[in-house]
Amino acid sequence: MINFNGALQHPETIKLTSENRAFKYGDAIFETVKVIPHKVIFWEDHYFRLMSSMRMLRMKIPMEFTLEFLENEILKTVAVQENAISYRVRINIFRKDGGFYTPKTNKIDFSIQVYENLYQTKDSYSLDVFKDFYNYSGLLSTVKTNNRMLNTLASIFAEENDLDNCILLNEKKGVVEVTNGNIFIVKGTVIKTPALDQGCIKGIIRSKVIEIVLKNNDFTIEETSISPFEIQKADEVFITNAIIGVQPISSYKKKQFISKVGTRIANNLKLLQLAGS
After folding, report:
1. Global pTM exceeds 0.85
2. Which of 116, 151, 178 is at the close of a domain?
3. Nearest alpha-carbon partner for 95 in 80, 111, 113, 108
4. Using CA atoms, how far apart are residues 166 and 178, in angstroms rounded to an integer?
5. Which pLDDT score is estimated for 277?
6. β-sheet bridge partners, residue 224
7. Which residue in 55, 60, 127, 272 has the fewest CB atoms around it within 10 Å?
8. Looking at the predicted structure, is the pLDDT value of residue 173 above 70?
9. What is the CATH classification number for the domain harbouring 188?
10. Exposed, middle or buried, 146 (CB in 10 Å: 0-12/13-18/19+)?
């Protein structure tokens, strides 16, 4: 079942017209959240990012779109699915039909789709750089819009080259993120991640990892520009997103990595999830 504007419907009964703006212009945003029974992980953080994105894109936020309302809609949609240990939930927000580049209205429709979360972290995980196209730096790149063509092409490239993922670069040839999450590199006691002005998504787990590192006296965190060459010199590399949490990287090009710091952070993150922080 899919939640469309608050009503639970079978997928085949939902009708999107040829004037749907998400289809025609990518005039839409989405949020992916992890749900375990009766609990949306880090929901408050996801909610405020969603509201911030809607305001940035000049979408009219309905009065009923409170934190509690959307959380209840998510849990309502999860409740009618087959029982699972964990769920991957996508909230889609798109401007109502009509108009060309200029919309007829800034009012929105929403949908909530639920999938069983089958992802498990892997012991072997390979990366390389996708160089065909760039993710241009700027504030709009930090928003999870439906325009994911670069991510799609990079994912195809990864599959064609027997890779697990690809690193995206910006127009300055700096590291931005991977196709489905943020990236961190560890060198000695310094942990680096691309700054938001490099064009990376303002990831929820990215923020949580930064919080964890800031509270740890053994390491320092730097949000900065990162060259692809720095990855080859790193001691460790790991990626993050709301579904996988922390995924250590075992290889980048011909470089092999260990995973001590990443595993330690992953364990701290699990404690935060259980505590509901």
Report:
1. yes
2. 116
3. 108
4. 5
5. 46
6. 194
7. 55
8. yes
9. 3.20.10.10
10. middle
